[in-house]
Amino acid sequence: MRDTTIFNRFIRIITIFCIGALPAITSVQAEVKDMTTGKWTIRFDNTTKTCQFLKEGTAVLQGVRVRFKYNSTIIESTSYSDIKFQEENFSDATGSGTKIVLEYSDKENTDNPIIQQCFYLYPNKDYFLTDVFLVSAGSSDIASNYIAPVYTEASNLFLPQDADNRLLCVPFDNDGFITYGSLPLSQSRGVNTTGAGQLARDTISFEVTAIFNGETQKGLVIGSVEHDTWKSAIRMTGSPLREGSVNKLECYSGATHSITRDALENNYVQPHGTVKGPKIKSARMMVGLFDDWRTGLETFGEINASIAPKRTWGKAAPFGWNSWGGMERNVNYEGVISVSDLIKADIQNKGHFGEDGIVFVGLDSFWDNLNWEELKQFADHCIANGQIPGIYWTPFCDWFPENDRAVEGNNGYLYSQTHLKVNGQTKKLCGAGCMDPTAPATLSRINFFIDKFKAAGFKYLKLDFLTNGIVEADSYYRKEITTGVQAFNFGMKHLRERCGDDMFIVESISPLFPANYAHARRISCDAWGEMWHTNYMMNSLSFGWWLDRVYCFNDPDHLVMGNRSDAENISRMTTGAITGYCMLGDNLSTQGSYPGSPVSIIKAMNYATHEKVNDVIRLGKSFRPAYGHRVFGSNNAVDLFYLETEDSYYIAYFNYSEGAKSGSLDLSKLNINADNIDTGKSFECWSSEPVNITDGQLQYNLPNDQAKLYHLFKKNP
Known about the structure:
Layout: H1 2-21, E1 24-27, E2 32-37, E3 40-45, E4 50-55, E5 58-70, E6 73-76, E7 82-92, E8 95-105, E9 114-121, E10 127-135, E11 142-144, E12 147-152, E13 165-169, E14 181-184, E15 186-187, E16 199-200, E17 202-206, E18 208-213, E19 219-224, E20 232-237, E21 248-253, E22 275-277, E23 279-281, E24 285-290, H2 293-307, E25 319-322, H3 333-347, E26 359-362, H4 372-384, E27 388-393, E28 397-398, E29 421-422, E30 425-426, E31 428-429, E32 432-434, H5 440-456, E33 460-463, H6 484-499, E34 504-507, E35 520-522, H7 531-544, E36 553-555, H8 566-579, E37 582-584, H9 598-607, H10 611-617, E38 624-625, E39 640-644, E40 648-653, E41 661-666, E42 683-684, E43 693-694, E44 697-702, E45 708-713
Parallel strand pairs: 25-26, 25-37, 26-27, 27-33, 33-34, 34-35, 35-36
Antiparallel strand pairs: 1-7, 2-3, 3-4, 4-5, 5-6, 5-12, 7-8, 8-9, 9-10, 10-23, 10-24, 11-22, 12-21, 13-14, 13-18, 15-16, 17-20, 18-19, 19-24, 20-21, 28-32, 29-30, 31-32, 38-39, 39-40, 40-45, 41-44, 42-45, 43-44
Helix pairs in contact: 3-4, 5-6, 7-8, 8-10
């Protein structure tokens, strides 16, 4: 009897323990329910069936609901009748915390899917993550091509009522000389879209945005941290300046637009591919309110890299040369051999240029002016000169789509078997047919060229026009793949694995995400040596500097000196320094059918071998913009950037054709403690002149079109 009693008590204790370990699932009955972890509270209003996001007790967004498309109908979670919630602990690549699930069931429309609105809250973080699952209420699969985990049309005011409030527009890719936009919450009626006015601004940003105040730097950062299935975007509607609020915010998966290159004729946009299954989900989104929006974007990048780790690179920052900047279509064997020799003799290891052993010498488009034997001889010549030979390729482009022909490699495939179709017609971008990244013909072509590149000795691969492989289409060869992003991931994963771990991969024209297939990505479209090119490229760095959290390096494109002024040359080279990547672009050939200009060769040799500037490039870091609400030049770039390291502060200040300007910089605005600067050791990198700091103010004098690059040493590193 006693043994039985002890046994029953033991079973009761175990049962209580097990029940306690299960997540509690409870119906929402109270009018308002608060769910809090760390700094964040998710407040559910049972009357309106909407959520409010509060950080440390202060409302950030209210009136938030889920919105999605099902059976060609837009449905919102507010129409559902039965809501339950549960809380449980979670731990994944992003960290550990509390997972909150709001589950919506529709008793009146039982065919509608169950909605699981999930929130991932962390102790002491300035952000949380959220996603949405749609679950079949029966035995049939469900399908959708649009899910918005965050949708609100409430008036949300989380910033000061101020003319310096901004919406950040991030482009989907870097093609067509597209720019980032830092736009007032209100819009002027005139041509100047960067001006403020009395009209609410409606705009879209891809994958991420920041809504911030330029003076306080406080900002909301929201965007997608998963890029395996969906193209995601944020559509925002600002308010007239007198209110300073955001009147609509929609963060959603399932975005297509002319900017995603899914536009067709007659202003028709191809819909996003449909995701199907018994349970489907949106991309996971980050929602964060930060004291500094720049920290928010850097954090956003780091979360992305925790979910899809960047392609690792344990070596030094890249230095080198690329043929497209000056040689362009005129690649020739004797010429590129002479380039390798000139770099070896006059640039390499001079002024710390590539002295860490990473000097790429890359052939861009028109490398096929050389035959395979010449290509191997070129690669061998570079290796003998202590350089890493590079090559260029477009894995998802058929440049002659009207001319069907055999795919290279004697594999029996035709190019027509690679084409993506939209409305039954071959999809084209930039004049090239878009190739299906999942088609056996495309994969066989990848195998052929990558194997040939490797056999020739190339260890640097520049990939271009990658957006051709991420467009939405009627269908894909692999039937389980139904979206452009899924297809792109499939093809790029195959390419990366074929390359192996010892091939440095840089993306040129490409989408922002996915980011885990390349070491570097060109941060802008093509840029040469003119000041407006510098200004254009700096627009991309102004608002995309944080991308070095998801790629090892941002690439500022070929640094061309040409026949531009010395001031422009200094500015263009400075863009390489503050991006952390240096690829020269002038035609440096002294032999062959297309020799370079002696003037541009001398300029390149001069500006590429400044020791103090090259030491900044060798950091391999992108500088942070000093602000985001003041932009300059025809392409609207920030003019002031800074970086802090263990022993130094660095400042870059640009003059985008504004005439000579001089004055003083308040270093405290750059988070720099002037009292901790050793002025005796500090200097301006181009001139080696000492700095003048008085009462915390750095005195500057910028000639027209010229940048200054300051290296300020700390007293107590």
